[in-house]
Amino acid sequence: MSKKSSLLYSNDIAVEYPDSYYAATAPLLGRQPQLTGVVTCDVCIVGAGFTGLSAALTLAEKGYDVIVLDAHRVGWGASGRNGGQLASGQRVEQDALEKMVGLDDARKLWDLGQDAKSLIKKRIADHSINCDLKPGLLYTDHKPGYVEDSKAYAEKLQRDYDYQDVRFVDCEEVREMVGTEAFYGGNLMSGSYHLHPLKLVVGMARAALAAGVRIFEESPVDDLTYKPSPVVTTEQGQVKAKSLVLACNGYLGKLDKRVAARVMPINNFVIATEPLSEDLAKELIRDDVGVADSRFVVNYYRLSADRRMVFGGGESYGYKFPKDIKSYVRKRMIEIYPQLVDTKIDYGWGGTLGITVNRLPHLEQLAPTAWSASGYSGSGVGMANLCGHLVAEAIDHNLSKFELVSKVPSPMFPGGAALRWPILVLAMLYFSTRDKI
Ligand SMILES: Cc1cc2nc3c(=O)[nH]c(=O)nc-3n(C[C@H](O)[C@H](O)[C@H](O)COP(=O)(O)OP(=O)(O)OC[C@H]3O[C@@H](n4cnc5c(N)ncnc54)[C@H](O)[C@@H]3O)c2cc1C
Fold this sequence. Notes:
single chain; 17 strands; 13 helices; alpha/beta; binds flavin-adenine dinucleotide; 35% helix
């Protein structure tokens, strides 16, 4: 067994959930055991977030004997901390996707986005997961010059993708819908959703346990062998498996250097206010939809089931969070909603996600029986769920959809492992400064 077992994430208290609105309100799972001794299974999955648990559920349904290992708790990573926006399509808009992969594959990738929502809704229904799912995401333009593009994009989706659950919203209506003059127009996607992500991931873990999956928490993997068959080593135990899935996303560290070269961790932050009065909540988000603006470092927000403003925004690079997350994010919120200047902030937390150069998921077959799925670049509520499922299908010898994603070239970050941070920081600074001009 290994003796290393060091944790990367100095921002977080190892193994515990952050002090988030989500952790305070989700029906958390009882602690699962740590891995000890040598165990065997068909498929070993490293990471108990959306990717890992989605893969585990699909595999268990197909009769595989599955073990999931997490360094911390179920849903401890980005899956239990995010903005809860379940978007349509990919992180990249269809026009850009068509240029990147051609019209045919762009359509297929759009369809995968639709599959992701169907998969999640089916699991919510099948396993009676109460995760406060609500319809509607409103994309708002923070510059007047973006409005015509939004209008054209809504028309394109209706015309070229036969997608009717989108409509353009003009300046007057957007301001009525979101109670602020910060925006000039936008698109309402009524076939997208928002939800309580930790309730979803915990519900998936319960379903996986019920299907016979063994979950081990507080079991950081610090050594992996892929060939001839996978061996996964933790401080006190070892799993010998026929197949292996890496589902660590932004928390991968150096566990696999090939993946790490293509999937870069960045941090993002969220606050939750005290519960708002019914009138104020309605003034800020009239129709209870999720909202995301057009900034490069996007502001995203929604109302929780108990009418808190859950507002996300701001980024940092490296495994370090700002000291005072509440003030850091509050500033962005007050710029849009001066009405909230006297509202108390009850929670503030951060999380780490994985981004790729092309902003599409990075799926990779690392060895004949080893697979990796990560790099959802801010669209992981849908895509992590879907890609975990696609990896499971690939293990079950159905590779067609896995290959649709994995064949899209996923470039390495410029600068290599040593220089990618400064280069990324410079690039991000440039774009976020452009937001303000
Ligand atoms: C603040 C924030 C807001 C976001 N908002 C949105 C949003 O609104 N909509 C959206 O679509 N996406 C959003 N995202 C992105 C989304 O949350 C992620 O893409 C998605 O949750 C990734 O899921 P995952 O299962 O791949 O990774 P994670 O949920 O991060 O899980 C990875 C797991 O791997 C475990 N792990 C790592 N290394 C090891 C190891 N060596 N041994 C054992 N276990 C290990 C970790 O403990 C962790 O639990 C947001 C992310 C953040 C951080």
